[in-house]
Each structure stands twice: as C-alpha cells, then as structure tokens.
Design goal:
This protein starts with about 25 loop residues before the first strand and ends with a strand. A hairpin with a 2-residue loop joins β2 and β3. About 20% of the residues lie in helices and about 25% in strands. It has 7 helices and 14 strands. The chain has about 290 residues and is an alpha/beta fold. The strands form 2 sheets. It has a 7-stranded mixed sheet with strand order 6-5-4-3-2-1-14, covered by helices on one side. It has a 7-stranded mixed sheet with strand order 7-8-9-10-11-12-13, with helices on one face. Bound molecules: zinc ion (ZN). The site of zinc ion has 6 residues, from loops.
Amino acid sequence: MSRWTTHVDPTWFRADPRPADDVGLAVQWLGTAGFRVLSGGHHVWLDPHLSRHSLGELALSKIEPRLDRIQADVDVAHAVAVGHSHFDHALDAPAVARLHGARVYGSSDTLNWCRGYGVPETQLTELHGNGESFGEGPFALRAFKSAHSPLFAGRVPLPGRIDQLLQGPAHYTRWRVGLTFGLHLQCTAGSVYHLGSSNLVEAELAGIQADVLLCCTIGRQSVRDFTRRAVAALRPKVVVPCHWDPFWTPIDGLPRQIPSNDLAGFLREVAACPDAPDVRVVPIRGWVVVRA
Ligand SMILES: [Zn+2]
C-alpha cells in the first residue's frame, strides 16, 4: 500500500464502548488532535475541533465556532486545554467554555482568542509550558514546552503570535501557532500525554512518563526519527494516533487519512520501538478505556 493512500483499514480499529462516567481513566478521540479525557465523572477536552470547515470555506470565508456541531459531541465539559493556537486546535475552545462554563488552559495566544470570543477572565488560566501543575478535578494538569512540526516545506505553518484580542469571524490564517505545549494529565488511575503536533523537545520531558500517548501523526516525516523519540521520551504503554484524518471533511464521513500521513507506516514505526507500546487506532468518537 502506497504511503500516499487515503485508505484506512477498518481492521486497524480497536475501540471500546463508551464507559460509565465514573470510569478510572478513559480517552475519546474526536478527530484532528481533539480528545476528551475522562476520570471519575470529570471531563477534560484537549484541542477539541468539531467545527471542521471545508477547504472552500477556509479559503473563501471567515470562520467561527459552529455551535451545533460542538453541542452534538461536547455533552459535558469541565475544562478545555489547548496545545497551540492554530484554528484546528484552538478555534472551538472558547465556545466549549461558554456553552458549559468550562475553564480554559492555554497560551496567551489562545487566551487572546478566548477573550475575543467573550469568555470571562475568571475562566481563563495561562499556560507557560514550564511544567507548572494545576489541579483540575481528579487530574493534575501540566504543560511542557514543545514544538510544532515544520510540515510546510520545512517550515511551521502560520508562524507568529496572537498578541492582541482576536475576534471572530476571521480568516483561518489569523490563528497563528503561538506557543506550543505538550499536555500531561495525571490522575490516580494513570496518566496521559497529548502531543498535538508531531515534534517534541526531549529536554523538557526529563522525568516525565505517560501511560497513554495521544500522538499526532501528520507531518512526523518532517522531524527526524519522531516516532521512536516520542516513545523513548514518554515510555507509554498505549499510543493513540491522532491528526491523521482530513479535518476539513465532515466528522461522519467514511474513515480516511490525509494522503501523506501513512498510518500503516506509523504502526510499523511504533512496533519497531524497544518495548513497543500497544497502538490503539480508533475511529472518530472512538473510546479507549485505560483503567476501568
Ligand atoms: Zn498546528
């Protein structure tokens, strides 16, 4: 199978049924780099991206969160954390915050967008990426400096900061990358690390481990040895690949991958790692129960 295929082999999928709310630790993939992390009835959303504007809409019009699509999937939310402020990671965060009164954790870039969307300052917590820890329900939430993959002809797309209030609707190019973080969530049942872009800064991760690695796969070929390094740095037991779907297509469409993503190649790369972790490929909205 060519590495340029959009085909996704349905036999790769191994999802669990939606767990009870009081589960020890579970994650649900929402497409793009979006996840729900659930423990003991507490729902934390990471980079939720449900608006999924089409390429035509992105090219020709201004965008803003689509509340109907967000409400269809985000039923409960206590907090949202955002790894970087590109639109496919940060666009929907303030809408989740306003719909559910959820707290938002993000860079000053992400928070300037949330302010522009009218999220009260009392709901906003700025992340700096220095490993600072925030109590969020049963979780300790920490952010570590990370890096965005240089996937656009060797460059990070939409570089720069959001250093002023950003108000929508706006063209997608207004969501500059800002600071990039890896997000670590620890509870008594286990830990999760969210790598929303295929790059990492190992020096920031000394002493950090995660049972589950939520791993972006698009653009990893632009970073030398990315998969092996990410697994070596975080020593996960389980890897859940993400950001392999065409995030400009409807969430209910047939499962397929971005042509350059090569999910089969990613599975081989993980399998070749020393102490290779289990890989759980799930369809959009699929769950992985880490600890019942
Ligand atoms: Zn990005």
